[in-house]
Specification:
Blueprint (H helix, E strand, L loop, with lengths): L16 H23 L7 E4 L2 E6 L3 H7 L3 H35 L29 H25 L4 E9 L2 E9 L1 H6 L2 H30 L3 E3 L3 E6 L4 H4 L7 E5 L2 E2 L3 H9 L5 E6 L3 E6 L2 E6 L12 E5 L2 E2 L3 H8 L4 E7 L9 E6 L2 E5 L4 H6 L6 E6 L2 E2 L3 H9 L6 E8 L2 E8 L1 E2 L6 E2 L2 E3 L6 E4 L3 E3 L2 H7 L15 H10 L3 H4 L17 E3 L8 H25 L7 H14 L8 H28 L2
Antiparallel strand pairs: 1-2, 2-3, 3-4, 5-26, 6-7, 6-25, 7-8, 7-9, 9-10, 11-12, 11-24, 12-13, 12-14, 14-15, 16-17, 16-23, 17-18, 17-19, 19-20, 21-22
Helix pairs in contact: 2-4, 3-6, 3-17, 4-6, 4-15, 6-15, 6-16, 16-17
Length: 614
């Protein structure tokens, strides 16, 4: 019987607020130093200042741009294509940002989400909770590539449209390249056609999107194809005060054997543990050392205000008076009983006293509106614990999911369960599942047993195989059709650094770095270069693709001084000039200012709206 996955809560995340404070203090000291150098006349002519930012100017490279710009017809066609993409992205960004801001205001509870914290808007490893310091080389490389191709595109189209260039350069914040620039000659730019100006402003984001496609094509193809999952169960997190923590097991270890029997992968670990009846097991780590682990049944995840009343860190010592120390022993002790009495050692009880609590053992679900189950049971906001489905005993959601997968539309099934302490039985006619070839019950499930996951060693497994599959490698993924297309893979890859926040995955993915490279190994022809070289190449491609698409989208925001703001201005001028009115600059300015202010207000409300409104 499938008893669900081994899942526990990893140690609390260390957020970047304290580090952000030190970063800001460092920037303040740096700014004071810049002011002192500027006022003392120690900065050379080619270095300018914009607040704490140093701008390095050069006139070199203009002759190279002139040579590259010679196939003008090609570059104009390329940029016209980019203008179309930029306009679509601009409209989408405008609509999405307003929509997300409205949702944020209507859901104040989302303000506490880690993804909504202001310091997580900054793409700074170590400050942003989702970007570890180990990702810094890939992020800096991707940013440099993005800046070069972006500003290079502007410079190239300047010469294609016969716009002179005063200077080019980069903007540095301390040692970090945060921008690049091309300064067109003001008079030459004004004399260019409106279409020429629009193509010039769109060229940067066009190149960013092109680099994104190239980087991800290389990553999803030959590079990820040269990476395989190393044998063993990947330890992503270790619960505090758990048997694993007491035994010295750490995140990024691989459990390669249990009592001398090899563990091939994550799915194999539960089987190997269930095969051992004793309360102590010998756990081999990374194929190198073996540690003894004294098992005890730990509550590793628990839904808030769940039907069991259990909390993370509680230990289950007995079921109906029968001592249990393993997950398999727990389910054996439960058997066919739908209600059992648990002996619990609370995590927050310093006296180590034990308490008894009667709980329902089954699959915790919310009844979806207008679904088959609601049509029989009626609407309810309470959690239902399903204990039997079509005559089969349900001990956790894994049992229910397996039966639903084998069901068919229009199949009539008996569903029994508890709402609170009351047992109810319904006969339900299943609908057709909207995404799968199976029956549909109309529920929103919580994984585990009655909204609780238990684990007898206390490790949280890292889905190394699934992440490899999401990147186009040899691995299985639960996202199905989404990742069957190239653009679908890109969409998922862009979400990987924050995917853990949504609950769709237990961890975020920030590349093959930060210790997770222990879960993988190089293979095939590229494997001859060694694990380090293959992982480095994969990280550079991943972050180059990720950063460039972010640069492209950000610069398409229709607000000054971004490229989207300039494209909005030239596009508005083109539209206004065709209206049967006397077009003025004031009319254009009114439109662009209104849109820019709307974007700014939406962004501020997105970050701070729920807090400001209480």
């Amino acid at each position: 019987m499938d008893h669900g996955s081994l899942a526990v809560v990893s140690p609390p995340a260390i957020y970047g607020s304290e580090l952000l404070t030190w970063v800001l203090i460092g920037l303040l000291l740096y700014w004071i130093a810049v002011i002192g150098l500027r006022n003392g006349g120690y900065l050379p002519d080619y270095i300018g200042t914009q607040g704490p930012i140093l701008t390095f100017h050069t006139k070199r490279g203009r002759m190279l741009l002139d040579r590259l710009a010679r196939p003008k017809r090609f570059w104009r066609a390329w940029s016209n294509f980019g203008v179309g993409i930029a306009l679509v992205v601009m409209l989408s960004m405008f609509a999405v940002l307003i929509r997300v801001a409205m949702v944020a205001l209507s859901s104040p509870q989302s303000a506490s989400s880690p993804a909504r914290q202001p310091h997580n808007v900054l793409v700074i490893p170590g400050v942003n909770d989702f970007l570890p310091l180990s990702a810094t080389p890939g992020i800096v490389f991707g940013l440099l590539v993005g800046l070069v191709v972006h500003e290079g595109g502007h410079g190239l189209l300047c010469r294609v449209e016969d716009i002179d260039i005063d200077s080019m350069g980069v903007a540095m914040l301390a040692f970090l390249p945060i921008g690049a620039f091309v300064e067109p000659d003001h008079e030459s730019s004004k004399s260019a056609s409106r279409g020429g100006q629009t193509r010039m402003f769109a060229a940067g984001v066009t190149n960013n999107f092109a680099i994104t496609l190239v980087a991800f094509a290389l990553l999803f193809g030959p590079v990820v194809g040269a990476i395989g999952v190393a044998p063993g169960a990947a330890v992503g997190g270790v619960a505090p005060d758990s048997p694993a923590a007491d035994a010295g097991i750490e995140p990024n270890d691989r459990i390669t054997a249990i009592n001398g029997t090899a563990v091939e992968g994550n799915d194999d670990l539960a089987t190997r543990l269930e095969a051992v009846d004793s309360e102590q097991v010998a756990v081999e780590l990374n194929g190198e050392r073996t540690v003894p682990v004294d098992r005890s049944l730990l509550v590793s995840t628990a839904m808030e205000n769940g039907p069991t009343g259990l909390s993370v860190g509680d230990k289950i010592r007995a079921v109906d008076g029968r001592t249990v120390a393993t997950e398999s022993g727990f389910y054996d002790a439960v058997g066919d009983s739908e209600r059992v009495t648990l002996t619990i050692e609370p995590a927050d009880d310093a006296a180590d006293d034990r308490i008894e609590r009667e709980v329902t053992v089954g699959a915790a679900v919310s009844v979806a509106a207008d679904g088959p189950l609601e049509r029989e049971a009626g609407p309810t906001d309470e959690t239902m614990v399903i204990t039997r489905f079509d005559g089969e005993r349900i001990q956790n959601y894994g049992d229910l999911a397996a039966l639903l997968e084998d069901s068919e539309p229009d199949q009539r099934v008996a569903v029994a369960g508890y709402v609170g302490d009351e047992r109810e039985t319904y006969t339900v006619t299943l609908d057709e599942h909207p995404r799968e070839n199976s029956g549909f019950l109309g529920i929103q499930p919580t994984p585990g047993m009655s909204g609780v996951a238990v684990n007898d060693i206390g490790v949280q497994l890292y889905p190394a195989d699934e992440y490899l599959g999401l990147l186009g490698g040899d691995g299985e993924t639960r996202f199905g059709p989404i990742t069957e297309s190239f653009l679908g893979k890109i969409g998922v890859a862009l979400m990987l650094p924050v995917i853990g926040v949504s609950g769709a995955m237990p961890f975020n993915f920030a590349g093959f770095t930060g210790g997770v490279q222990n879960f993988y190994e190089a293979q095939g022809m590229l494997g001859a270069f060694g694990d380090g070289s293959v992982f480095l190449l994969a990280n550079l491609l991943f972050w180059t693709g990720w950063i460039n698409v972010q640069l492209g989208f950000f610069n398409c925001i229709p607000a000054f001084p971004l490229d989207g703001g300039h494209i909005l201005r030239t596009s508005t001028e083109a539209i206004v000039s065709r209206l049967p009115v006397d077009a003025t600059r004031g009319m254009v300015r009114t439109v662009t200012t209104a849109i820019g202010v709307t974007m700014l207000v939406s962004f501020v409300l997105l970050l701070f709206g729920p807090q400001l409104l209480g």
